[in-house]
Every structure is written in structure tokens, then in C-alpha cells.
Amino acid sequence: MLTFDGVRLSFSGVNAIDDVSFQVGEKELFAIIGPNGAGKTSIFNVLSGVYQPQQGTVVFQGEPIVGSSPHHIANMGMARTFQNIELFGNLTVLDNLMLGRHHNVNYGFLAGMFYMGKARKQELENRAVCEDIVDFLEIQEYRKMPVGLLPYGIQKRIELGRALAMDPKLLLLDEPVAGMNVEETEDMARFILDIRDELDIPMILVEHDMGLVMDLADRVMVVDFGQHVATGVPAEVQNNPDVIRAYLGSEETRADADAKAHKAEAHVGPQSHKSEGVTS
Q: In the chain, what are the domains?
């Protein structure tokens, strides 16, 4: 489905992506993880055409896409959600979903103005697709409400729905559960699995919730400072020493941090008990 090969991207001499390679197969849920600033979003921006790398190739469904515009890549079937919600708050849920159908609209100005012929036919067809997405994501009660009035978790679900409205061949999910509570996270995880298992859409997931990643992903790639650290099934990645170092630092660093924490705890402990006694 996708080949990302030897890509380098730098800004003013600083490497955001440093010779990273990976592949995504059909129906695969591929996760990219790493500390803040590791280059995860830069990889997404290269995939979607926002950034043009200085080196390397990206092939999507057999076609090279480096140098292609974002709208061309979207028309090829690559859809994306964003870490920060990018919806139109004054429009209804259905209208926001309809924006994902823009590449299926090819009628003229007059037909659209008078709502006749091809315009009416395509409008009804595209709305039917959006209604199916409303049912799939279980947001029926919000369908005609302005998005800006809805809870954060529902807005994240609507953004996922807008990406689905594009009939994607590959879905890029940029931190889909960021800022969600436990119940909202569980709901989103269920929808992500349904997208893979029922709709057969491969996905690339960037997420900081390690529990979610390890439960859902078929394979995981770890990056740090723009460099590839490891790729494998979740169990392999979790136990990889290089991955542990990337997230937690070296054993010496962790030991030093633990020693400082114990020393601080020993120092403030008696004061805390004394304060408790005064309070009681």
C-alpha cells in the first residue's frame, strides 16, 4: 500500500527525518511512536504533501508522490485527521462530513445554484454516504447540531468521520485520542478496530497512549530525534533495549533520577507527616 524509503527532511540544518524507511501493507494498522520532537508529525506531513523531503522516495499504491500537492494526494485516497481539531464549528455535523466528499462533486455553478440535475443527484448520493458514517460512528443525535457546541470527544469522532467521507485507501490518524478521558478513548479504539476489520482500510497511527498502541497495532515503528530506532510487533518493540533508552534514557540516567527522587522523598517525608498532624 505504501513505501517510505530513505527519507531525509531537514530545516536549517536540523534533521527532522533522518533516513527513515518503512512499509505499510493492505489492511494493516501500522503505528509510529516516539518521544516529543521525534519526527512523527513530520513523517505525516511528508506523506500528505505538506513537506517535500530533500532525499528519499514515497510510493503510494505504486505511484511516487514526492513533489505532489496535498490535494492530489488526497484525491489518490490518502486521508488524514489532525492532532488539533480542524473542524468548522459553525457548521453542522453533516455539513462537516460533506466537506470530505468535495472530490466527488463535479457539477457546475448554475446546477448548484438551482439545485437541479447533476447537482441534486450528487448531493443526495453524497449525503447518503455521510448518513452511513453518522450511523457507523454512532453520532445520530448530533447530526444537525453545530460542531462548536459539541463535546471534545464527539468532535474528535466527527473529524474521523470527515476523513472516512473521503473514501480513503489509507488513513492517517494523528493522535486520535489526545485529550480524551477513558470512556472516550475506549470508544475511539473500538471505531479504529471497526475501520480496519469491517471497512478494510489500512491505517498509520501516531499516538502517545502506549496502552492503545500496543493493544491495536499490528506493527510498531519507533523513531527518536528523526531516526529509526526499531520496528516490529508490539511485544518485540516493548522489550527492545533501544526503545527503552529512547523513552527512559540510559540505565545510568534512570538510576541517577531514581536516587534523586528517593533523596527528595526522604527530605520532604517528615515535613508532610508533620503538616498532616497539624491539619488533623
A: 2-77+168-249 (3.40.50.300), 90-166 (no CATH)
Query: Considering only CA atoms, which of 20, 83, 31 is closest in space to residue 210?
Result: 31
The overall pTM is greater than 0.90 = no
pLDDT digit string, tens, across residues 100-125: 998 877 776 766 676 777 777 878 88
Q: At a CB cut-off of 8 Å and minimum separation 6, what does 9 contact?
A: 15, 16, 17, 39, 42, 46, 51, 53, 54, 226
27-54: buried (b, 16+ CB within 10 Å) or exposed (e) per residue?
ebbbbbbbeeebbbbbbbbbbbbebebe
pLDDT in tens, 61-97: 999 999 999 999 999 999 999 888 889 999 999 999 9
